[in-house]
Amino acid sequence: MKKKTSLFCVILLPLTLAKGYGQSAGDTLRLTLQQVVEMAKERSIASRQAVTTKETKYWQYRTFRSNYQPQLSLEGTLPNYNKNSTPVVQPDGTIIFQSVHNNNSALNLSFSQTIAATGGTIFGTTQLQRFDDFDRKNTLYNGVPFGIGINQPLFQFNSLRWDKKIEPLKYKESRQAYIESMEQISIQANTYFFDLLQAQVNLQIAETNLVNTENILRIANQKFDMGKVSRNEILQLKLEQLKNEKAVGVARRDMEIAGLNLRSFIGWQDTQYISLLLPVTVSNAKISSDKVLKEAYDNRSDAIAFVRRITEALRDVAKAKGDNGLNASLTAQLGFTKSGTTIPKVYQSPNEQQLVYLSFTIPILDWGRSKSRTKTAEANLQFATYAVEQDKQTFTQAIVTQVTLFEMMKNQLVLTANADSIATEKFQIAKERYVLGNLSITDLSIAFQEKDQAKRDYIGALRDSWASYYQLRFLSLYDFDKNEKIKYL
């Protein structure tokens, strides 16, 4: 009886996940799920792409803002040298080629400011022109010491006013999209984490089963020598041993592949062996559909896009109406102008300058083009309204479904944890009974399979629960554990 007890203790020797399967403790990097997620957010290529996209959207927004800021520019043609022959038409209709040799240079310093409310532009200018006639050896200056004016489109589409409504929405949408990208990285990191964890657990199961099978086979051989078991049972155990050896090889291969995938995603270049720690139970925070929906409509880029899409459709209608019918533009300028043989004379007692002109276009016959454009834009607005309404329903349904799924996953996790505990205890009892000789090899094999499947089911339920939790964070951009909106600097 003493010999049987010592052999039974050998059977119960466990293989733990933390050993690293042949790696020394110093070579092993032990990581939790939260650590893997944070590493992915900080180091992964996906996170760097998200940051780059965010910066691009920021500078695009800055470009938009600059359209409403004062502009100061210097324009010039310097030099404008010309030595040529120019045809000159005579009174009798003949042409004489006249020699031309001159320089006509000009500089213009201008200031402008757009008016978003009207779509017009106010401007100020100062100009100086120099003309050199080298044939006659004289120089003349002409200038506008100061001029101020306005250019105002009439009855036209005002892009500045609509951009002022739409571009801030786009920028806000891009900022929330960045947060969504980071939360999407969390979801991907969770997938890679559990791929490797499942592979490590499978290897642990395979190695443990191999050790147990070898020890059981050793006991069975002793019983066979005493005539207590059949040859068929010995062969069955040897077959199980071969299957377990194969399972160990397959599990090692799968673990290496999963490990490489995780390293690549989180940007970990070190050669340390990664051993994953089993995550604790998923968040116990009470999550209601109403809370998730409220946060989703406050935070998600999709919710902002609903408003933007309708606004863009309204803009297109306004553009279709503004580009049809009467289009006019009023330009007015007041200032001073003067000519002289020297630069100081240009600025001495300049003459008044007044400029007013109105340009317009009135379509008389366009064969219904204007009406067609307007009707098309109005139809697109109606379609956009329906599409947004449908997307809102889908958006809401996805959130309600995910909240329900999350609660189901938490319940499944409790059930699979209990099943895992029961299957493990049942297997221990089965091993004891087999050692004592009152259990068949078939029943022992069934206990093996039930134990392994229960462990895999538990890891799968844990994986689904965390995936559902991160999906809820992604859908709402809200941290339910900290009870605050998710933000990234």
TrEMBL record:
Location(s), subcellular: Cell outer membrane
GO molecular function, one term: porin activity
The keyword Transmembrane is assigned to this record: yes
Gene Ontology cellular-component terms listed: cell outer membrane; efflux pump complex
Stored InterPro entries: OMP_efflux, TolC-like
Predominant location category: membrane
Pfam families registered for this protein in UniProt: OEP
Keywords: Cell outer membrane, Membrane, Transmembrane, Transmembrane beta strand, Transport
UniProt record similarity statement: Belongs to the outer membrane factor (OMF) (TC 1.B.17) family.
The protein, known as: TolC family protein
UniProt organism field: Chitinophaga flava
